[in-house]
């Protein structure tokens, strides 16, 4: 028994670099993404079905968003280091836009006409009227959610309207603009060679600076918390608070990728991080406010612990869970369709079956639409990831290897260490309703 306890203690204290613990697609990122997407469905079930928050001490949806951004930072920065900037941007566009466009078209051309007919008995004024379908598609086509509803389709008819007054068809889409902003920031850093080994300390310095700002904002009236950045072309205005919160988690994931050769993965530290996050969440201390703090400011050390816990789980989840999302990644589809599904169900009065029934119906329909989205839209689009314009292709017999789409060599890897194959991140993160 003593020998067993000594072995357990020795293993719990042993550490290995993240680079050794992370094995390409043999990881739990897919399972975590799906878990976060379903956590958003659970959080939105209370808000959209019953007009109340799921929990009063912690926002489960916000935690899921934070997890999405951590994973995305790790995987997307890794993708940028393995690709030229044009190829990286092409991969990101294929991952986020085709699924989004299909969702917007389903919303505007299928759901909106049904709801409009049910409400008005006609389609007059739906398409070209102010705030109509064409405006909805045009305003939201590139990922910035600048029009939340269509006409008056949900006015006065849903629990969410009665609680928050929101005529919102698909509120989950608003964080896509923040995700795209992070992608563009990564592309700029890659173009400036900041993601290479010699300059990676600049990204670490940026993460430390944002961490300091978040700590200050938790204790005092904040820095860079009022107003928005922009409006930016295509994306619209981005709230500074959300850029700080979720940008920090994206930075945490990115720094973990850049320093994967030095970041220790320790089971005791991972468990302590999970316990700390759970304890702070139960106490209501994970999210502010502190004394004179910005309303609902995140507690930065808790965010840091949460980011480490997510990465630790990704490499320590049981092997059977590594298969989740490896070939069929439904998490993005669950995210982009679930809010719409739940609003339609709430308008139809399905919440009368009770919270569990409403949640099950929401999850089943969302997963079904996610499967259709993956197999009919997302996966076919991803087959184009290696496409290169004819003008940039190497002629037969020309030089080969070492370059990418625009002739730029990808980041080099230290001798003796292989990079994991590209594992595309889920680009989306859903906000908590309300």
Describe this protein with a few key phrases.
disordered C terminus; 434 residues; acyltransferase activity, transferring groups other than amino-acyl groups; transmembrane helix; two-stranded antiparallel sheet; transferase; hydrolase activity; mainly alpha; Peptidoglycan/LPS O-acetylase OafA/YrhL, contains acyltransferase and SGNH-hydrolase domains
Count all strands and give the number. 4
Secondary-structure content class: mainly alpha
Largest sheet: 2 strands, antiparallel
Radius of gyration: 22 Å
H/E element order: HEHHHHHHHHEEHEHHHH
Low-confidence stretches: 289-294, 399-404, 406-434
- The number of distinct structural domains comes to 1
Distance between the termini: 52 Å
Percent helix, as a range, is 55-70%
Fraction in beta strands: under 5%
Overall shape: it is: globular
Give the spatial strand order of the biggest sheet.
Answer: 1-4
Given the structure, what is the number of helices? 14
Please, what is the average pLDDT?
85
GO cellular component, one term: membrane
Keywords: Acyltransferase, Hydrolase, Membrane, Transferase, Transmembrane, Transmembrane helix
Domain Acyltransferase: 31-374
Transmembrane segments: 34-54, 60-78, 99-117, 173-194, 201-219, 242-259, 268-286, 298-318, 330-350, 356-377
């Amino acid at each position: 028994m003593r020998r067993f306890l000594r072995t357990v203690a020795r293993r719990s204290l042993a550490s290995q670099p993240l680079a050794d613990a992370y094995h390409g697609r043999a990881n739990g990122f897919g399972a975590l993404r799906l878990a976060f997407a379903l956590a958003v469905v659970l959080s939105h079930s209370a808000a959209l079905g019953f007009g109340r928050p799921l929990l009063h001490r912690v926002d489960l949806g916000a935690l899921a968003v934070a997890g999405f951004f951590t994973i995305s930072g790790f995987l997307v920065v890794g993708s940028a280091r393995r690709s030229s900037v044009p190829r990286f941007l092409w991969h990101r566009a294929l991952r986020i836009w085709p699924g989004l466009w299909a969702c917007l078209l389903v919303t505007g051309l299928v759901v909106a006409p049904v709801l409009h007919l049910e409400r008005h008995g006609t389609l007059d004024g739906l398409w070209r009227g102010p705030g109509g379908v064409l405006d909805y598609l045009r305003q939201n086509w590139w990922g910035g959610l600048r029009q939340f509803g269509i006409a008056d389709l949900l006015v006065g008819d849903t629990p969410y309207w009665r609680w928050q007054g929101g005529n919102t068809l698909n509120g989950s889409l608003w964080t896509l603009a923040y995700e795209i902003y992070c992608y563009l920031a990564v592309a700029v850093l890659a173009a400036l060679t900041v993601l290479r080994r010699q300059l990676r300390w600049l990204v670490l310095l940026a993460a430390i600076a944002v961490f300091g700002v978040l700590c200050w904002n938790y204790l005092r009236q904040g820095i860079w918390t009022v107003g928005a950045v922009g409006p930016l072309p295509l994306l619209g205005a981005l709230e500074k608070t959300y850029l700080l919160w979720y940008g920090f988690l994206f930075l945490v994931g990115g720094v973990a990728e850049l320093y994967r050769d030095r970041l220790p993965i320790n089971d005791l530290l991972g468990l302590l991080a999970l316990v700390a996050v759970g304890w702070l969440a139960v106490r209501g201390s994970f999210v502010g406010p502190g004394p004179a703090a910005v309303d609902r400011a995140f507690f930065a050390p808790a965010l840091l612990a949460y980011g480490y816990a997510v990465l630790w789980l990704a490499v320590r989840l049981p092997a059977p869970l590594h298969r989740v999302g490896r070939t069929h990644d439904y998490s993005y589809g669950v995210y982009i369709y679930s809010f719409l599904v739940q609003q339609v169900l709430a308008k139809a009065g399905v919440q009368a079956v009770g919270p569990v029934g409403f949640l099950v119906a929401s999850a089943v329909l969302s997963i079904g639409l996610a499967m259709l989205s993956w197999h009919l839209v997302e996966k076919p689009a991803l087959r184009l990831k290696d496409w290169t314009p004819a003008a940039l292709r190497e002629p037969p017999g020309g030089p080969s290897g070492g370059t990418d789409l625009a002739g730029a060599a990808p980041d080099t890897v230290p001798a003796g260490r292989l990079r994991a194959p590209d594992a595309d991140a889920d680009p989306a993160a859903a906000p908590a309703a309300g």
